[in-house]
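Forum > Structural Biology > Help requests

Title: Can anyone predict the 3D structure of Sulfatase?

Hi all, first post here. I have the sequence for Sulfatase but no way to get a structure on my laptop. I'd be grateful if someone could post the structure tokens.
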Amino acid sequence: MQSMKKRLTWIFALLPLTVMAQQNVPAPRTGSPGHPNIIVIFMDDMGYGDVDAYAGTGYTTPNIDRLAAEGMRFTNFYAGEAVCSASRAAILTGCYPNRIGIHGALFPNSKIGLNNKEETVAEVLKKAGYTTGAIGKWHVGDAYKFLPLQNGFDEFFGLPYSNDMWPMSYKGRPLDTADPRSKRPLLPLIEGNRTIRYIRTLQDQNMLTTWYTERAVSFIHQHKSQPFFLYLAHSMVHTPLGVSDKFRGKSKQGIFGDVMMEVDWSVGQVMKALKDNGLEQNTLVVFTSDNGPWLNFGDYAGTTGGLREGKGTSWEGGQREPCIMRWPGVIPPGTVCNKLAGTIDLLPTFARITGAPLPQQKIDGVNILALLKGDPSANPRDHLYYYYNENDLEAVRQGQWKLVFPHRYRSYEGVLPRNDGLPGPYSKGSTGLALYDLRRDPGERYDVKKQHPEVVKRLQALAEKAREDLGDNLTHRQGANRRPPGRI
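Reply #1:
Sure, ran it for you. Structure tokens for Sulfatase below:
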């Protein structure tokens, strides 16, 4: 018994030193043996409550949960905007999407896309000697000049836009010729810059997660001897949902749960490839989502975990996302970060980690490496702006406080969703000026602006700075520092 007590005393004495070592690991420099690989797994329409580590039920996500157990789970992590193309422009450039002229969801044959003058995270990391690959959904322009290989990626395999942008219904049937969607082109699966096949049926959609995963594993095997950046942007859980036979019918939540289980399998395959190649300890893995769930699809959609509204809104359910990061030796295992952060912060953080220079043009992200190291005093992101539509400043958050500005929005409240894979109706919502204490009221139900006028004044001042910088259509402001999208 005495020897056991001595051993426990020795172990506990070492714990503070271990934590200090984790928090003071220097950022690896270009060319150093510790230069980490970086993998970003970016989901589509996955809600804050869709994995076990947050609130998922009726299915299991053990591989994603393992990331959380061995890494850090963020509770206040935000997409750049609550819609597809804008959100992807944000994660790729570290900018609010309205700064660089991208908004909404770009459709096939779009005349605009990501401007080649913007530096993507891939272009930044290539300066540090990284090989770069994009697999899955792109969706920041489908013209040749907008595709990944022209924007810093060495390899690309995936779709140029969302998997529902095809001439078929959500049931996989040809659309009536009177429906304008019937004029859309077939859904191309692209390798490099070349279409290698078309996604014609729901049976083809069932294979997307498997195909992406196989390519991701192959990318890891091929580039194990050099630092790499892999951007794995899944098409799921965006509708129409597709799941392979190996997971169909395996969950208690119908096809949505089946898809979640397959996505989790995909994460497991990526982690296995890292382990098989001796890379598991020298790779930063980030798992997050582009926006909240598309709630009017009912049981074909995910959950916000109790947050208000969903995809396409600036309420928390639309823009606050699950985020898990794992990096052994740097990120303390089993930790939770409650500080404010977002996808726009990934690019500058990766630049700091790798020693790569930041883009020459202004970006909006901040370096959050101190959060990853578990520094309890760190607070690199002071505030966050919520934009929607072309350039509407709909809210601002600082600390626990969120000030919402008067605007109208599409809503999921007061109407019933469908439960057959087809979209239900939207309702219309509107709000005046409102202040929410997200620490006590994450569902944004209790306006407390009368109780805290000093907070309202402080957040209004932050909003005014944003309007001077980026403008605001809601208040008819132009802004001084917006940049144009790419055009053809």
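The domain at 387-487 is CATH 3.30.1120.10 (Arylsulfatase, C-terminal domain). The chain has two domains: 36-382, 387-487.
Shout if anything looks off.
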